[in-house]
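2024-03-11 09:14:02 INFO queue: dequeued item Cytochrome c oxidase subunit 2, len=348
2024-03-11 09:14:02 INFO validating residues
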Amino acid sequence: MNNSESGFRHGVAGNYAFFLCALAAAPASAASAENDVAPLNYFLHSYGPASTPTMVLGWVFAALLIAIFGSIALLLVWAVFRKRPAVDPHSIGREDEGMPWIYIGTGISTCILFALAIYALITLNAIANPTHAPALTLTVTGYDWWWKVEYEDDDPTRSFVTANEIHIPVGQPVLVKLKSADVIHAFWVPMLAGKTQMIPGLANQQWIQADVEGLYSGQCTQYCGVQHAHMGLEIVAQSEDEFRTWQDAQRGDAEMTAGINAGKSLFLDRCAGCHAIRGTEAVGAHAPDLTHLNSRRLIAAGLLTNTPDHLVQWITHAQDLKPGARMPSMALTATELNALSAFLSTLN
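2024-03-11 09:14:37 INFO prediction written
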């Protein structure tokens, strides 16, 4: 182990929490800059018809809770400062004097809860299906701890697979089929739609629609293991033309550049068992498809920004950065690392 690598390992050990918090905040910062709001501020902001009704429902529930809290606080203050009339300590009063108030309170509470239940069911029905046929169908599969995204097409040759980043056309409903490959996950892009469970052996679905171009952060919200907090994704809402351009580029195989044979051979030898790169012999299905790796803004399910330095750190120190992930920390010589980095840099 050289001095720089040793220093890096000690730095990770000493600053792990701060390092991960800062990097995990990268998608949040980007989304905030794009939409001018915090990415998880779904209580005040909605950018799609599947999330607006639930946002309003949240306002109603919050207003009711505030009203209840205020009423109880006023009654408590009144009870504290109320002076009871003097009574004969030997007299026996009626035991049911306060019962009418209990009946009234119980009746009001029952009516309110019943009304809220009806309103919640109406809201669920309103967002159950899009207003018109989805323009796009995706299958998202949750893994420990990343997202596989399959873009479906009537022509199988036009389907393709990517990971952790979903591009959609703005203003169009998108059907999202949800599956899990291991444990229970939950798909949630709070500014576009509510939460939906991803249960092994069961296929669920929801729909999303973004009415404003930009980046929208998503997160697994069902505890699924030690790296549950670092299982993020991004939704990129684009204009129709930009989306079609991106989609056409994603359908193509990786373009092999001359002079990277050493890195390619190393990848096929060390990485192809898990990762796939279309156009090569790498057909692994247990880790993200890397065919167009450099088109993504983030890596490691949102943990790191996709820069050459972060990619090298992820390859060599994956277990330091994301303990428990299936990605191992790879021991490579400087020559091997340079060759592998050169090959990965061509995956545009």
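2024-03-11 09:14:37 INFO annotate: Residues 76 and 327 are 57 Å apart (CA to CA).
2024-03-11 09:14:38 INFO item closed
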